[in-house]
Design goal:
mainly alpha
Length: 160
């Protein structure tokens, strides 16, 4: 009879372990989603402040704040603090933002002016390396060149 109790205990323990693993997995998914929502809200607000800034010193300050927040988002991505679909969404957003910044001469100059130490933009550099290894940056380079060519052509045509 002891073996029947052992088997029953084993089944109940296995079920409890399965429920615990599922609970942890769901908790990680919920945490990832909450992290992503918080980041998006902060980034949306930072973009809004930057784009609405009027005075040059205010523009510079808001740009620096935006770039610092984007760097934080890259750190969250690289630390694997988000998982699954939320990680994929964050990656797509960061690649898109990187495309925008790389295509904008003014933004690139502002970023260069913000570099204070060799490890400034540490997570940008790591993110770029990772995207190049995954061959996502080649497509980004082609899209950036294509978009830049369209912008140049539009400017030459007088905006038509």
């Amino acid at each position: 009879m002891g073996s029947l109790w052992d088997v029953t205990a084993l089944i109940v323990s296995g079920a409890a372990l399965g429920i615990a693993v599922f609970t942890v997995w769901r908790s990680n998914c919920n945490t990832s989603a909450a992290t992503l929502v918080s980041l998006y809200e902060a980034l949306r607000a930072a973009w809004g402040r930057y784009l609405q800034a009027e005075k040059p010193d205010q523009v510079e300050f808001e740009f620096a704040e935006l770039i610092n927040l984007i760097e934080l988002a890259r750190a969250v991505y690289l630390d694997a603090a988000v998982h699954g679909a939320t990680r994929e969404i964050l990656e797509e957003y960061l690649v898109e933002v990187l495309e925008i910044l790389r295509a904008d001469d003014v933004a690139r100059k502002r970023m260069a002016g913000l570099m204070e130490r060799p490890n400034t933009y540490k997570y940008l550099k790591l993110f770029l390396r990772k995207m190049r290894r995954q061959e996502k940056l080649g497509a980004l380079d082609d899209q950036t060149k294509s978009r830049s060519a369209r912008i140049d052509a539009t400017a030459e045509d007088g905006g038509r």
